[in-house]
Here is the input.
Amino acid sequence: MSFRLAAYAVCIEDGRVLLACHVPKRGGPNWTLPGGRVEHGEDPYDAVIREVAEETGCDAVVERLLGVDSRIIPAAERAVPGGPEHQNVGIFYQVRITGGQLRPEPNGEVAESVWTPLPDVAGLRRSSLVDIGLALAQALPATGHVPPVPVGGLIQH
Here is the structure.
């Protein structure tokens, strides 16, 4: 089984959420939260700020920890065929944008980042991470955990 620790930013402002359009080398575009892999030796708190800057061009500050999600993606459902099943542990932070200007990720897989009205999210092809982050931001559970989001239709791994 492969493993990845990642940090994700949930930026909600004026009824809109900041989403990044991820365009992988294989497959179609998919909307997700800004964020990604925590590098070896890196604090997840620092990783989420770095990832927001890299993917969106914006400066950010962490306002609070929202929660943690752990999921196992079966080998048959992975975007890259032939790989083993995969565990992703995501740490979700409530983040506020403090400066910068939205732009595509230079030499990266994020084609654009946009402020999306919350009601419009349900109609987007998106990562389950979006739904998890929004559920955590809405519920603010004391445990930092919400039920798993089922994958299918517009919701992808």
Notes: The chain is about 15% helix and 45% strand. The chain has a mean pLDDT of 94.
